[in-house]
Amino acid sequence: MSGIDLDAAIDLCRTGDLWLFRGSSGADRAIRGVTNAPVNHVGMAIVVDDLPPLMWHAELGQRLPDLWAGKHQRGVQLHDLRAAVLQWGHRYAQRPWLRQLEGPGGRDAGGVTREMEDAALRTVARLDGTPFPSTARLAGRWLRGRAPRLRSGRGTDSDLGAELATAYCAEVVAVTYEEMGLLPTAKRANWYDPGRFWSGDELELTPPYRLGGEISVTLPAAPSVEGASTSRLRSAASWVTPWRKRATTARSSAE
């Protein structure tokens, strides 16, 4: 599939699908230069029950409401998917792509189980609101993620039982994928950068899961992103309250 419009892309989205973005600003080029990646941002779709499709990612901006926290904040956030893609496409001048997660039996057969969704919810509950690092710390984290391990097993940064002091977009996706059982835990979370989730990097997921190729997404004319999200913010509490309960139940069961 070479390209589709935003509405069609959102209709296709399921939990675990990835959104990748490439921009032309100085910061975008700096991220791609340091990481040698073709893209500079990645987020993960969460589509659960009758909730609207959501984007789970980390960013510096706070123009959109974080639907988990019910307020505007920076760092790791849960956004309305459509509003997030439009903001990155129009306000940040980023080109978007969609990569679909394929499970046992292929895409049509699904594959993300309720247990995997619950693991994603626990990650949202744990990491939402985590601050975004400065550019210098971002580069440092990425470089440290490629340093040789001093001991076997998981590195401190990828220990899923500990809170991340700061996080950036690829770490958020990597940790969530690890929690869902989609990625092995041999790598530190800060080993990942946005380009690791681009098809050219041939990232290996836990079999039989795989990511499909990039689908270019065409955006409609620029809307008022803030205006489009106002009504969603008003009803965010009613959306998220039962979801928080599910996350709490899932956490208790896991313990």
Topology:
Blueprint: E1 3-5, H1 6-12, E2 18-22, H2 26-35, E3 41-46, E4 54-59, E5 75-80, H3 81-91, E6 95-99, E7 101-102, H4 114-127, H5 135-145, H6 169-179, E8 210-211, E9 215-218, H7 225-234, H8 236-254
Parallel strand pairs: 1-9
Antiparallel strand pairs: 2-3, 2-6, 3-4, 4-5, 6-9, 7-8
Helix pairs in contact: 4-6, 4-8
InterPro entries: Papain-like_cys_pep_sf
Protein name: Guanylate cyclase
Number of strands: 9
Distance between the termini: 42 Å
Query: What is the number of helices?
Result: 8
Unreliable residue runs: 146-165
Protein name: Guanylate cyclase
InterPro entries: Papain-like_cys_pep_sf
Organism: Pseudonocardia ailaonensis
Describe this structure in words.
The chain is α+β, with helices and mostly antiparallel strands and 255 residues long. 36% of the residues lie in helices and 15% in strands. The protein has one domain (3-254): Alpha-Beta Complex (endopeptidase fold (from Nostoc punctiforme)), CATH 3.90.1720.10. It has helices at residues 6-12, 26-35, 81-91, 114-127, 135-145, 169-179, 225-234, 236-254; strands at 3-5, 18-22, 41-46, 54-59, 75-80, 95-99, 101-102, 210-211, 215-218. The strands form two sheets. The protein has a seven-stranded mixed β-sheet with strand order 1-9-6-2-3-4-5, sandwiched between helices. Strands 7-8 form a two-stranded antiparallel sheet. Strand 3 (41-46) and strand 4 (54-59) form a beta hairpin. Helix 4 (114-127) packs across helix 8. The longest helix has 19 residues, at 236-254. The termini are far apart. Mean pLDDT is 79; it is low at 146-165.
